[in-house]
Amino acid sequence: MPQLNPNPWFYIMLTSWLTFSLIIQPKLLSFTSANSPSNKTSTTTQTLPWIWPWT
């Protein structure tokens, strides 16, 4: 069972995380989003309490 021997799997995991962190992640973060967030003022709505018939 390969799960009992962590020796090769640790290096595979470490290599994949280093690849993601050093190569793939900076390329993904360099993209700009198409819909950038705007500074809209939030509107507050007035909420009314429910009127329960049995109270």
From TrEMBL:
Which GO molecular function annotation, any one, does this entry have?
Answer: proton transmembrane transporter activity
Q: How does it sit in the membrane?
A: Single-pass membrane protein
Keyword Transferase belongs to the record: no
A Pfam family that the UniProt record links to this protein: ATP-synt_8
- Localization annotation: Mitochondrion membrane
Cellular component, GO annotation: mitochondrial membrane; proton-transporting ATP synthase complex
Q: Provide one Gene Ontology biological process annotation.
A: proton motive force-driven ATP synthesis
Q: Which UniProt keywords apply?
A: ATP synthesis, CF(0), Hydrogen ion transport, Ion transport, Membrane, Mitochondrion, Transmembrane, Transmembrane helix, Transport
Checking InterPro entries in the record gives: ATP8_metazoa, ATPase_protein_8
Return the PANTHER family for the record.
ATP SYNTHASE PROTEIN 8
What family is this? Belongs to the ATPase protein 8 family.
Please state what the protein is called. Answer: ATP synthase complex subunit 8
Q: From which organism does this entry originate? A: Corythaixoides concolor
The UniProt gene name for this protein comes to ATP8
